[in-house]
Design brief:
single chain, 281 residues, mainly alpha, three-stranded antiparallel β-sheet, elongated
């Protein structure tokens, strides 16, 4: 297949994809716009395209060996789209997009191209909101964890406090660690940041994975400190300190602090486990 025919076939495939998934993409963009937990979704596709563009030389050198397995994956993905549409299940429809991309790459180009593009394609998973049942299973334990952290911090400072589940009771107010304050928002955003940071700073998959996994304790720590700080402010300043601008500002402040800690972890791991020096000659 010559270059012109290849470009034409790619353009046709891209157009068909956009037409087929237009309603899914519209709802996905709407979620990015209205759900602060996934506002980073706008960055995922451009970054994935950049990661794929970085691999252009490897893709050009890879042999074209179309695989019939791609047809099976493509049909299964389209069946998932139909099932998701009939059942009004957005997660299935959105996941079918990733499967369709995998099927097209495998069918049109072959396993070697899919191997080269495995990271950019997998990165696209970060743009898909979790199903509500999974989201809640993660958010509620984080709410309880942040509540316990805040309670212990207040007790250390000899501030009278009583905790009932995810509610912290002070002498002058009650603080509820709601879903929005569970830390899952910062966890999802930090995970994305950790993956991107690891990708650009280290070529070793072990170090990239370590940086990405470190986002979990960092996010939990940052959110626990935020809850504790809110309780301290509410005790000494008043209930108004736990709401409004100060509460929102503390969230941004903690995210900046968590991001800084993540960068420090990256530098620390690079210092403790320096990348091998390539010899010349």
């Amino acid at each position: 297949m010559n270059r012109r025919a290849l470009i034409t076939s790619e353009a046709i495939a891209a157009t068909a994809f956009l037409v087929l998934y237009s309603h899914v993409l519209q709802k996905l963009v709407r979620d990015w716009s209205h759900d602060e937990n996934y506002s980073h979704g706008f960055l995922i596709v451009p970054l994935a395209l950049y990661f794929a563009w970085e691999r252009r030389d490897a893709l050009a050198a890879a042999p074209l060996k179309p695989s019939a397995l791609g047809v099976g994956i493509l049909l299964a993905s389209l069946a998932t789209l139909v099932a998701g549409t009939l059942g009004a299940e957005l997660f299935l429809m959105r996941m079918s997009m990733i499967g369709t991309v995998v099927g097209v790459v495998l069918f049109a180009f072959g396993t070697e191209h899919l191997r080269i593009l495995r990271f950019p394609i997998a990165f696209l998973l970060l743009m898909i909101p979790l199903p509500a049942i999974v989201f809640n299973q993660i958010a509620f334990p984080l709410q309880l964890l942040a509540s316990r952290f805040g309670e212990m911090a207040l007790q250390v400072l000899s501030i009278p406090v009583l905790r009932e589940g995810n509610v912290i009771i002070l002498a002058n107010t009650r603080l509820e660690v709601a879903e929005a304050c569970s830390g899952i928002r910062s966890l999802i955003s930090l995970l994305t940041l950790g993956i991107v940071l690891g990708y650009f700073t280290d070529s070793r998959w072990t170090m990239r994975s370590l940086i990405a996994l470190s986002t979990v304790p960092v996010a939990i720590l940052a959110n626990g400190l935020r809850v504790a700080g809110t309780g301290i402010a509410a005790h000494y300043v008043g209930p108004d300190a736990a709401t409004g601008f100060l509460h929102t500002f503390s969230g941004w402040l903690m995210f900046i602090a968590a991001s800084s800690l993540l960068f420090a972890i990256q530098r620390g791991t690079a210092w403790v486990f320096p990348p091998p020096v390539e010899s010349i000659g």
